[in-house]
Known about the structure:
3 copies of one chain form a homotrimer. Helices cover 51% and strands 10% of the residues of chain A. Chain A has 378 residues and is of the alpha/beta class. The first copy, chain A, has a single domain, classed as TIM Barrel. Chain A has a 7-stranded parallel β-sheet with strand order 1-2-3-4-5-6-7, sandwiched between helices. In chain A, helix 16 (325-347) packs antiparallel against helix 17 (353-372). The longest helix of chain A is centred in the C-terminal third of the chain and has 23 residues, at 325-347. The two termini of chain A are 37 Å apart. The model of chain A has no long low-confidence stretch (mean pLDDT 96). Chains in contact: A-B, A-C, B-C. The interface between A and B is medium-sized, with 33 and 30 residues.
Amino acid sequence: MTAVREALDGLGLVDHHCHGVVTAVLTRPDYEALLTEGDPWPGVSLFDTPVGTAVRRHCAPLLDLPAHTAPGTYVRRRAELGAAEVNRRFLAAARTAVFAVDTGFGADRLTPPQALATAAGGGATAYEVVRLESVAERIAADGVEPDAYGDAFREAARTAVRRPGVVAVKSVAAYRTGFALDPERPGAAEVTAAARRWLADGGPRLADPVLVRHLLWTAADLGLPLQLHTGFGDSDLRLHHADPALLTDWLRRTAGALPVLLLHCWPYQRQAAYLTAVFEHVYLDVGLTLHHVGPARARAVLEEALEITPYRKLLYSSDAYGLAEFYHLGALAFRRGLAELLQDRVDTGELALSDALRLASWAGRDNARRIYRFSDDN
Amino acid sequence: MTAVREALDGLGLVDHHCHGVVTAVLTRPDYEALLTEGDPWPGVSLFDTPVGTAVRRHCAPLLDLPAHTAPGTYVRRRAELGAAEVNRRFLAAARTAVFAVDTGFGADRLTPPQALATAAGGGATAYEVVRLESVAERIAADGVEPDAYGDAFREAARTAVRRPGVVAVKSVAAYRTGFALDPERPGAAEVTAAARRWLADGGPRLADPVLVRHLLWTAADLGLPLQLHTGFGDSDLRLHHADPALLTDWLRRTAGALPVLLLHCWPYQRQAAYLTAVFEHVYLDVGLTLHHVGPARARAVLEEALEITPYRKLLYSSDAYGLAEFYHLGALAFRRGLAELLQDRVDTGELALSDALRLASWAGRDNARRIYRFSDDN
Amino acid sequence: MTAVREALDGLGLVDHHCHGVVTAVLTRPDYEALLTEGDPWPGVSLFDTPVGTAVRRHCAPLLDLPAHTAPGTYVRRRAELGAAEVNRRFLAAARTAVFAVDTGFGADRLTPPQALATAAGGGATAYEVVRLESVAERIAADGVEPDAYGDAFREAARTAVRRPGVVAVKSVAAYRTGFALDPERPGAAEVTAAARRWLADGGPRLADPVLVRHLLWTAADLGLPLQLHTGFGDSDLRLHHADPALLTDWLRRTAGALPVLLLHCWPYQRQAAYLTAVFEHVYLDVGLTLHHVGPARARAVLEEALEITPYRKLLYSSDAYGLAEFYHLGALAFRRGLAELLQDRVDTGELALSDALRLASWAGRDNARRIYRFSDDN
């Protein structure tokens, strides 16, 4: 094992963006659905994907199975061990010291932050990330007058982030409107008019451009780190609207107001890297990407993401959702991909070993600590 | 030779999208024009390109010349052997079992499907792909009233695909309007109005957005596989309008209606991969790209194309047009690039050999057979 | 040392797009600001970037320091040697025979072309590139009536390029409006109306779409090579508006009128490559990119840039600005990256050595000489 890999293996990661895991026993269709964030496809196994290959290769051994185990055997063994044991094994293997958990999507079927940290063992701690669209939709569900919505949302967001353990907010604007938005803060009258239309529809999924802008500007006022989904996701997305470069004008206007964390980014990791290089308050990770492309391509994606990214700007996240396997795969792909990339540069004399080790610790842990200011008291 | 390469070399490929070859003897300017799909440039040899290098390296030996033969010698030897012999050699070298041939462009100077299969030898079979823009333009040329155009096109398309040997339709919407189209099916009145404008101009090249939408929705109704040019091509294209991500809304509306095959894709292979991962009915290939980038870069492009693409979603095509060399180069670049990619993963333990072999057969043959349901009776 | 590397090392490069260097002694904040084209970030050293690593690795030895020297030591040693000696060392190390210098930005603090050539030694010569936006803004500053602006700009541009040593013009339209412009030449009345609005504001930074189009069409009329900033730069840019594919319609209209040189291109090097492949008059380089990504990634970027680029279409530039280190780093990254790429292809039999050597000379020197027709008499 190389020096850089050893250092990354020994590092308790900060996983700055993830979700809970399911505790139900999963049938094979359930499992496959969680594997790819989509519906199952008749006649096609979703194990026949890069992420499926990665699970069979790198997760099967943790369930006492040989590498490349057949999917059926894998899912049966999973059920046999039970969700608690499975989750414990994969979470422990990820060696994550701190989890920042987005609790705003599918919370009813997923472990809450504290249970995640407990399952991980080793004294891990968990913090919460508040999904702002969920805050907005709760207000609509609870009933609000259009002209009161703007303030009600701001107040609710303020209240939500004052809860103990909350360290950041998140927006899925990429899914709702995309980033080709007017960068200006909307006026109160505009917000009221938009809220009127939205609430008249019963206040469904928040996807109105004016209300999304109001949401993003509210985040800027809060000043807490704002996590933004960018790049690929499930089918409910227009990929080209999730290119983070589209946010440039808004980022220019919010310089100094808040840290902005571009999540996932693929296939726009170079566009994201550019933004981290020119805006002091912008950061990126390639979470989600890493387990979907698998360890076989994690290094290649990291190489692109790091071409011009300042070393203080790369963070680690798994974006694991539902399956505890993704904690293990994300951490493995990150550690291995980054270690190979850095060690190669050390070996060819391009990088000093001490710099490589520093960069690895920053990316895996310290950059997140610097931005989120986790309190051990929470 | 590695196990994966041997398997791919022994596989009779299904080339699901290609064109005929020329049977005329070619002068050097003619040859260079076909080499790059453009007009010759005074003072510049179009052999001084990656594809030109690939021809000199990998095609010259099949004409009994040393690798890296000078262009002039190459073109003279080609003339000396005669088109029939040249075509026979390159087509045989491609070891293609099934050709699906787009007959809608330049058909007067190219071999028809059956002649292509005969020249390939080895019991190869050929099927036809109907280019829908050509169907539409033929209707205009034959004379039609604007208010009859919508139905006439639908009927002509239905008739065209009922001909024996037709397995798919194709659209070059990427060239005509690009993909930033209203995803909705146009109404009859809209189609009539658009047809009126188009026919008033004499019914030239179909490039009206409403009529292109009508064409795409007609394809959806036919339910046959629809091949779509995406990504790069000749100068008659706006590359950024050929990003397949722009089709997302239309793909969402046509889920379940037809298989959609994204052709070429470069440099948007990752965007295409995303679409194949989230939409059950979407597939991709990197035809055309492979011979243009040449064997030296084919693996790199395939690596990107496969980062998240489900294994049932990658197909092989050469998109060979005019020069029989492209059949050989496309097949070689595909076999070599894919074999190297897979064998490396086998060698590092990331992939089981049996899975690698399965994936190779799927990509080279079985995925196409599954989609196109070729009939040996045709 | 390999044959290709040796040839590239021995080649006097033509750096077809660069800027002068500073002659002042630089404090560490000054130095860091020039390192990344941005403002310093409190608490973060801009040496902690890929370009900072490249400076510590590859520039420190030229200042008699060990590789990977600490930033503080590096900047102190730089001051100790003095700017003249530092500049001399880095410029000599770049072994550049010809510089084409953009004099339109920050000229007051940078060496003029002749001083640059003198500092480089070895009989280097320097030519000038006229930045057209600066010409326009000077006219506004000098005072002009709106209805005279159109002709005044054309006349001033004509006069500017008649000066001895001028070989090209440049536009930073990418920064001002982006490339999603109406491709048509604006009419005189349109230009006057736009000039009226612009001059009423005092004629600041030229960023009016009509006036930018007028500027680009003036370049087309001049017929001299036009250098266009494309792709990444500093924070004063919308990256997605700098995708050169957006220029397609304008390039189609200007075929035959002038050579167009796409500078930098990253992350759109593949889009730029497509344009060079289909338009006879379009060329590219990956200057600026090379020193920002550093020698560790220069080859990877060149591999993408060359996937389909005709060999007559790749040029070398450093785009060095301010710091003489960038001349050295750009040249090193180009020579090393291109040599590794080509030698690998020679070693695997994909490319004849003679072709590799020819391609290297073309890219490093001859393609630029062919386009710019430098006169040794200037």
